[in-house]
Amino acid sequence: AQTVTQSQPEMSVQEAETVTLSCTYDTSESDYYLFWYKQPPSRQMILVIRQEAYKQQNATENRFSVNFQKAAKSFSLKISDSQLGDAAMYFCAYLMNYGGSQGNLIFGKGTKLSVKP
Amino acid sequence: DGGITQSPKYLFRKEGQNVTLSCEQNLNHDAMYWYRQDPGQGLRLIYYSQIVNDFQKGDIAEGYSVSREKKESFPLTVTSAQKNPTAFYLCASSKGRWYQETQYFGPGTRLLVL
Fold first, then answer.
1. What pLDDT shows up at residue B98?
2. Does the beta-carbon distance from B107 to A97 stay under 8 Å?
3. Which residues pair with A15 in a beta bridge?
């Protein structure tokens, strides 16, 4: 079974600095998708970034970028120029690209990011 | 504006009572999902539906039921058989091929037991 591990329960960053959140996953599949979602205090899950496993190029979305290491099964999120509004829980998630699968996202337990002014 | 709405924001259940959580989307998405989130945990899938009048059980379907009579609606009923219903419930939807598409989430419903 696929699993997603976020080894950092909490992280802290100074405003305007850069922080990297770690995520590793376990799968025997070669075709899948990886996501980072943000859950602010309002608790709505907001998509941050998506990575297709077949793409070698790392996804970027404004100040957010990923370091996708397929062989190492690692998928870290880098937040540059951190802002107070970035403070939230961040969840890494995996989706297997297979029509016979349940189709559900497999989530890690999350990393709570604090941003200090 | 297109999006996913969930109601109510807070819901209280008495012992032995069934309660229904609403989820509506106007994104014209084919697939819809229900997840449960417990404190300090990620999300776990309860049920999902790829198309109207069809749905499948997720990892933790026991004590829950769903219906999908309309494309835009996917209500979740928490039955009295669910012994530990206190949690945060999130509805999501995705378009097209559900196993390839990004899931977008609603604002959630907090269920508490009286």
1. 64
2. no
3. none
A11 at B interface, C-beta within 8 A: no
A33 and B106 within 8 Å at the Cβ level: the answer is no
CA distance A14 to B112: 36
Question: How many contacts (CB atoms, under 8 Å) link A and B?
Answer: 63
Tokens of B17: 């009572």
| Closest listed residue to residue A44, CA positions, set B58, B27, B5 | B5
- Convert the pLDDT of each residue in A20-72 to its tens digit: 999 999 998 888 999 999 999 989 999 999 999 999 899 999 999 999 999 99
- Picking from A98, A102, A110, the nearest residue to B58 by CB comes out as A102
- Contact yes or no for A102 and B107 at CB 8 A: no
B91 close to B103: Cβ distance less than 8 angstroms? no
Buried b or exposed e, range A69-79, using 16+ CB within 10 angstroms: eeeebebbbeb
CB A5 within 8 A of CB A108: yes
Beta-carbon contacts of residue A56 (< 8 Å; ≥ 6 apart)? none
Chain B touched by A102 (CB under 8 Å): yes
| Rounded Cα gap, residues B5 and B9, in angstroms | 10
Tokens of A108: 């890690």
Is A21 in contact with A77 (CB distance < 8 Å)?
A: yes
CB contact under 8 A, B33 and A104: yes
Q: Do A108 and B92 touch (CB under 8 A)?
A: no
